[in-house]
Records
---
Amino acid sequence: MALFGLFGKRKEAAVEAEEKRVLDSGLEKSREGFLGRIARAVAGKSSVDDEVLDHLEEVLVGSDVGVETTLRIIERIQQRVKRDKYVGTGELNGILREEIAALMKDPVPMDPSTKPYVIMVVGVNGVGKTTTIGKLAHAFKKEGKQVVLGAADTFRAAAVDQLRIWSERVGVTLVQQGMNADPAAVAYDAVESAKAKGADVVIIDTAGRLHNKVNLMNELTKVRNVMRKVIPDAPHEVLLVLDASTGQNAIEQARQFTKATDVTALALTKLDGTAKGGVAIGISDQFSIPIKYLGVGEGVDHLQIFDKHAFVEALFKG
C-alpha cells in the first residue's frame, strides 16, 4: 500500500495492512470480471499470439480501460513478445501488471511548509464530491491538522447542508453563506478565515454543474482569482472527483473539466460498488493527471491515498 500519509508522514504497519484489506475488498467486483475475462481470452492457448492479443484488447475495452489506453497497452505487449520471441500465456498477468503500472502515475505528497494548503474540489453532482470532502477532512483531522471547509457550491441547498453535516461529524470549521450566495465570496471568506486561524488546510467545494464549458470556466476562474487575493498561489491543488461506476462517462467528465480548469489531481469514488475499476487506468493514462484518492467503501476511513502498485496488486490478486 501507500507508505505515506497526506503530508508524507510514514504510516504505521497496522494502518497500511488495514488499508490493503479494504482496497482488496473494494476492488473485488472489478477483479472478478477482469481476471475472469483474461482467463477466457487465453483458454487453450500456450503462447501470446495475435488471437490472444485481439481477445485481450476486447477484455480491456470491456473493462472500461478505454480505447486509447488499451491500444497503448497492447502495443507494449506486442513489443515485448517480439523482443522476447516467446511469451507464454502464464506470463501474461505479470506483463499486464507491469505495463499498467507503468502507465499510471503516483500522487505527490502535499508540502507541509505550505500553510494553509488550499484545495479546490470540482466535479458534477452525484459523484460523491461532498462525501469525498468530508472524508478528506476526517483524514486531515486524524493527522492532527486544523481544517476549514468552504461551502462554495451555493446553487444547491442540499450541498451546503451536506457539508455542514460533515463538518459537524468530523469536527472542523465550516464557512458558508447559504444557498444562492456568491461562490467566490464564500471561497474568499473561507481562505481568509483559514489564514487568520493558522489552519493547515482549507477545502473549497464548488458547484457541481457541467452546464456550459464557458460558464464553468468563468465561474471556476473567478473563484481561483478571488482566493489569490488572500493567498497568491492558491489553490495549491484542484481536485476533480469522478464516479468510477459511470465508466466511460467519467472519462468524458474528466475531459470537460480539464478543458475548463487546471485539474492537478483526481479522486475516484464508488470503486467498491462497480466492476468498472479499469476506468482508473484509462483516466490516469489519458490525462496525465495522478489519481490521488480512491473511494473504496462507505466508511469515513474508506478514502485512500492512491498507490499504483497497490492498486494493480489488488486488481490482479488471485
Note: Strands lie at 117-122, 147-151, 173-175, 201-205, 237-243, 265-269, 291-295, 303-305.
---
Amino acid sequence: MSKKGRILVAMSGGIDSTVTAMMLHEQGYEVVGITMKTWDYASSGGSSKETGCCSLDSINDARQISVDMGFHHFIVDIREEFGDYVIDNFVSEYIAGRTPNPCILCNTHIKWSALLKRADALDCEYIATGHYAKVNEKEGRRFVSRGLDPRKDQSYVLWGLSQECLSRTMFPIGGYTKEDIRQMAKDWGYEELSKKPESYEICFVPDNDYRGFLKRRLPDLEASVAGGSFLDVKGNVIGTHQGYPFYTIGQRKGLGMAFGEPKYVSKINPDTNTIVLGDVDDLLKNNMSVGGVNWMKYGALPEGKEVVTMVRYNDRGVLSTIHSSPNDRVNVNFLANVRGIAPGQSAVFYENEDVIGGGIIQPQ
C-alpha cells in the first residue's frame, strides 16, 4: 500500500481523466482505474458511429494507459441502473415540456454512488475524476469551487454532490488549464492523447439528435403529438409544429416555418400541445423558482443573500438575490433580465468562486 493511500480514478479514456490518473500515480498514490459502461449506443438504434466515454475505443484507451502505467483497471457495467434512472428521467422531462440535463442527474444520483460503492469494495479511501473544479472546506462543510481555467470550469455540473461524496472526492486537474493538461500528456510521451478532441455529447445521444432518440425510445410519440399549434404571445394560431417535445425554450432555428422575422420558443404547453413563439424580448425574465436544492457551502438557504446565478452551462451568470418560497423552493430575483430560462435546467448559485448550492428550474 502506498504511503499516500489507494485512490479509485474514473477513467473515460479521454485526456482529462487519463492525465488525472497519471498525475496521481506520479504523486505516489496507489491508483486503481475504473471505467463505467453506462450505455450501449447500438441498442438506441442510432445511425452514427459509437463515440465518447462508453465506446469500445475509449474503454480500450483507458485500459491501455493503466497497463502502461502499471496499475489495476476495472470495467464496470452500470447500464441497468443508469438507464432506469437517467434515461427514463430524460424522456419524461421532455414529455413534460421541460429541458433536462442528464449529465448532472448522472453525477448526482448514479456516477458518484457507483464510484463510492466500488471504492469501498476495493479498499480505496478516495475517488478522483477529471473534472475542472476544486473541492474546498470551510467550518466543517465541503463545497465545490470553480476550476482555474474559466473556459473549462465544470463546477456547474457538480452542484448535486452530497457532503459524503465531497469528503472523499478529489479533482486533481482543477488547478490547471486545458493547455497544461495537453502538455502533460505530451511530456509523458502520449502525443496522440494530447490531441484527442473534446466530447460535448450526451453519452447516450452521441449523434446529438435528441429528437431522434425520443422517437426511437417512444415509437408512437411522433404521431401522437404532431400537428400542434404555434401561438403568438397573444394566443393567436400562427402555424403548426411537429410536436411539443421536439422544441426547447429559446430555440430559433429548426422551427420548420418562416415568419418573416426571428421567432423564439418562449413557452411550451404540453397539456395543449401548443408552443408560444415570441420576440427576443419575450425570453427575458427577472425571476424564477428553483426546486430540489442541494446546499453546499452553507447548511441552509442564506436568506436574501446576493449571489451570482448561472442558468445554463457556460453561462456567465447574473447577480441575483435568493429567498425562501413555499414547497421548499427558492425564489431567485435577478438584478438584470435573463434570457431563455428553461424549466428542467439547473440553476447554480455562486459566492465568488464557490458553489453555494444548486437546484432545478421550475415551470412558472
Note: The chain has a mean pLDDT of 91.
